[in-house]
Specification:
Blueprint (H helix, E strand, L loop, with lengths): L1 H15 L3 E5 L5 E2 L2 E2 L2 E7 L3 E8 L13 E8 L7 E13 L5 E7 L5 E5 L2 E5 L13 E2 L25 E12 L8 E8 L7 E5 L6 H20 L1
Parallel strand pairs: 11-12
Antiparallel strand pairs: 1-4, 2-3, 4-5, 5-12, 6-10, 6-13, 7-8, 7-12, 9-10, 13-14
């Protein structure tokens, strides 16, 4: 019985500290006539929030800079959230040359996106704020570190000096945000595309939560039945 009790307690502790959420642009999303496809993964901790932002377009699908991610904003459920800062960031930078060939620029721990906001609503933006890197360092599709050519890219990407280099594939940040705990959840996320700040926005509400409580009860019941069967 002690083993069963310990297993249920351990499971409950694991479920109660799960702070991961994923937001994805709806299938068929477009900016103008161009397809866009983005994902943001959030993991909350004690005073920290990790964001993994991905542009899910394949290199072959990249045509125009309006398909690139340039900002993400998010709002927490509840209250009590305060000051914020960037602890760390990471991205692989790539230059897209005339004709679409790729030159890798290596990795950077200074992606050049600026964090702003407070009171539960925050934004990472490469086009605004002191020290922003834009219009360079927008997040282009393709695989991080790949030299696969962007064969369909037009002049807003290929050989465009101001827009190069691009963060390629994905970028990651770890933020310090007062009031965040592992139980904190994000209610909605807004993705921004292109190089005109404040436009080309797609807002995604939080997906329905996974039925962790049902899973916990099911696993607990299975453990109990197994324990009883062992006694027979």
């Amino acid at each position: 019985m002690k083993r069963l009790t310990f297993s249920i307690i351990a499971l409950s502790a694991l479920l109660s500290t799960c702070g991961a959420q994923t937001f994805v642009t709806p299938n068929g999303s477009t900016i103008g006539t161009k397809p866009v496809n983005a994902e943001a993964d959030f993991t909350a901790g004690n005073g920290t929030l990790t964001i993994d932002l991905s542009n899910l377009l394949a290199a072959s699908g990249v045509q125009d800079v309006t398909q690139n991610l340039s900002a993400i904003s998010f709002t927490f459920n509840g209250s009590g959230f305060g000051a914020s800062s960037i602890n760390s960031s990471f991205a692989t930078l790539a230059t897209v040359n005339n004709g679409g060939s790729v030159t890798q620029n290596g990795t950077t721990t200074s992606v050049g996106w600026v964090l702003s906001g407070g009171a539960g609503t925050y934004s990472l933006d490469v086009l605004s704020g002191s020290g922003h890197a834009g219009p360079a360092h927008t997040l282009i599709g393709g695989v991080e570190g790949s030299t696969t050519a962007y064969a369909s890219a037009n002049g807003s990407i290929a050989g465009n000096g101001p827009h190069n280099a691009f963060a390629q594939g994905e970028a990651d940040w770890t933020l310090s945000i007062a009031g965040v705990t592992p139980q904190s959840t994000v209610s909605s996320v807004t993705f921004q595309f292109g190089t005109t700040d404040g436009s080309n926005l797609i807002t995604v509400p939080a997906p329905a939560p996974e039925p962790f409580s049902i899973l916990g009860l099911a696993l607990g019941s299975a453990l109990l039945l197994r324990r009883r069967a062992a006694r027979r």
